[in-house]
Design goal:
CATH topology of the largest domain: S-adenosyl-L-methionine-dependent methyltransferases
Number of helices: 10
Distance between the termini: 119 Å
CATH architecture of the largest domain: Single Sheet
Number of strands: 32
Largest sheet: 6 strands, mixed
Low-confidence stretches: 1-29, 52-82, 433-444, 597-616
Length: 616
Amino acid sequence: MIYLKEVRFRDICKKISQNEVHTMKSVIRPNKSNRNLIFAVMLFLGIFGGILFISPHDAFYSVQKNKDTLVKDISLNSPHSSESTNVWITLNPINNTHITRGDNITLTGHVLWWDAPTLKNLTNYPIYPVVNNVSYNGLSGNANLSVITDADGNFVINYTIQHNVDFTTNLTIYANLTENPANNIYVGPDTFLSDPIEIDVLASSNISFTTNIVDPVLTNDQYSVLITLIDDNNVPIAAPNVSLYRNSNSSDILQTNITLAANGQAQITVTQEASLVELGVFYPGLNPTVQDGYEFFQISPSNFSLVIPRISSVHAELSVSNAKNSSETGVYTGDDIEIFTKLWINDDTQSPLNGREIEFLLTIGAQSASLGPFTTDQNGEVSQTINLASNGLTNNGTLVVAISVRNGGSTVVPSSAIQNTNEINIAVFDEPDYGGIAVNITIQPPAQNWVKILIPILIGAGLIGGLVLFQRFRMEQSHRRSIKLRKVDLEKFAIMNLLYKVDRRREAIAYSYKIFADLINEKYGLVREKNQTLREFAILCVTKYGLDPLRTYPYIALVENVTYGAYDLTPEEYERAMKVFARIFQEITGTVLNFALEITSETELLEGVTLKIGGD
């Protein structure tokens, strides 16, 4: 147990007024007649002082314990009384002495008061903070941050570090109160039982960047990034070690060791990558130090990220027609074809893919040609007239036209990645033989007029023979198509059309798969097993019987989306779906199918159904 050693008789006597002391001196005389009286008074006071000396007091014990470490060198901001100190302030330590400008400090503590003859808690009294010798008590134009002590003499002061505080120097903070002699409250150097708290003020950093991107970017596009680094007082920070990283992953570095100039900025050129969705910038901070297991920085680290507006998907409409007669469903090997396409981005038809390079990919049997690049106009459209023979396409058969998007000299969106319509077909026929007959003409004397008569006859016969051969060729073509279609059940087409007429477009598309399965069964004898999925059956058709995957898989994907999807089709989407079905129909039967199903109110269910075969 610690006892009070410095409460002296002299200190207690100071609590007696000067007039009373003077009266005692004038009445009490040290003569023999009153010596006993003086002795008795002295004995009483000695006993009283001894009781105070040996009485334990928990709160006062804490005061005495700290008095050896009292702060003697603090300049008080309140008037100092000639009376002795009788209030004592104890500050509690704070957890974090490294604070960024703008952060809040919570200063807590306790105040004791010697109100003779009792040591008690100083309650309901204002306490204010002193920061770098500036008292925040509402005087001299300073803010009033005073708080009132509670019933136990405790106080809690909240102080926010100002943004203009110099982070290169420490900040000193403690608590104080105003002396009030009228209420027996005296402040002196011994009032402060705790050292002022030293705060290491740090600067927070704010890093950001902007780009010059106007339209969504595509792979291989280049754009500039302007990086800016400032502290929390908007002062630029020059730094040699800023990094750019990919997709919210600070360890996936795109560019490192970027040096910021004196204005806190740097401009970097970035080449868009296919997988780059988000771009981030990171500043690692300045002068890291470790204290009490925590890492602190003179200027704190910061990072910033931004989603890059990019082209995530490309959609297209594509059409191919006979350049001479667009109503024709096929062309001859020497003819011109008209290719038209319209492209848009991110599944938004109001966002055209304008000013971009595209390429047409033409394939017919073993022959192929890449044409372009062509640049889309402001509506995302390209229209080109192309001669097949002049581009090395001389075979007959089915011409497949596909498109791809190019950028920076390479293909960035292949045909397989373009949605809606990425390819289309048109039939190519050999040029017909008109049966022309070569005739050697010998000029005879004028008397032989019969030659003049014979030559026109021979020419006419040749023309007639050519027309006959051509018509026979067309009849044979039509006969072959009719054989291939002989087992196609026209009732199924009628049912599919009826479903469309009653706005059951999804079921109509699904029903087209039944026609597909029946065609496969008729041609290859292959029946879909009950445990086979639509895709598994299609893969078997491709791998075993050589169906074109570029026609088969898009059709199966369409049927799957419609069958298992929760959305309905618009008439335009149904029309595009029928074009996809026509391509797979042509793949199986070898016939260009352009069917029109009409059921009128005047006919029965299956009447008025017509099936038009291209080329007939």
